[in-house]
Amino acid sequence: MPLITLNGAELYYEEHGEGDEVVISSANGFHPTYPASLAQAPTNYKVYTLQTLGFGRSARLDTAPPQGYLNRWAEDVIALADHLGVDKFSYTGISHGGGIGWVIAHRFPQRLKALLSVVGTPHLRYGVTDSSEGRRKIVDNPGNSDVIREAMMQMAGPTPEGREELRDAVLELALATKLDRDPNEARINQGMPFPEAKDNDALRTVLSSIDVPVLILGGMRDGVIPPGSSVLAGAAVRRAKTVLFEDEGHWIAKESPERLVREIKLFMDELDGTALPPRNEALSLAGGEAGTV
Fold it and tell me: What pTM was estimated for this model as a whole?
């Protein structure tokens, strides 16, 4: 798969599927099932996944970008869309990848058909905006498997009953990835979206300026992005739809990707006006008549 020079740096990306609906995603690394699964039935989208600057096969940086990682990563997504000749696209991201999407929605709303945010709404504000607690522990303790394991378990949230085996497998894979990172990757801390918003009222003001259709998918058990974060964003963004799963946490994209795909298809069909039959047809199917109650 190709390396491409964007904003003066070589970045790695992949493409999946042949559909007409274009979805772009960006992250430090990608799980095999999501978002690439959006290129398969029932969605059948054209999906591009871009690895963020500083990670994996993409170029390394000696110093942090002056405008911050999330802003730079958002600009790289726009540069990829420009390179591909895609004027308007939908963006999906998980966790920090979701943060990239919120920056795009705020800075480049004209480029988005929709934002599909997966456990990635901007963090609630508790006095600091440079990092979440879990991320800070991981960055400050490179190579320390005990500390990183504990931080990742806290971030994932309580394990749903019956999913212990799957959770253990996901944890071990994620832990191995964290421990295998080179020092340049391990020290990167992207911070929070909109660090200028120092409290929740200020964050609400920023979010209320976003005018893009947004699907917020979150887990009630999430230890990084608690449900209050999803509710705050969903109430602030005027064209948002929020779906919270009681039995899911921060790793929903790894543990239950099919649930995300179903919600995304419904949301995109709603945007396209194809989710429901016309009103008269719906009434006919229900055995009623137009104009009756």
Answer: 0.86
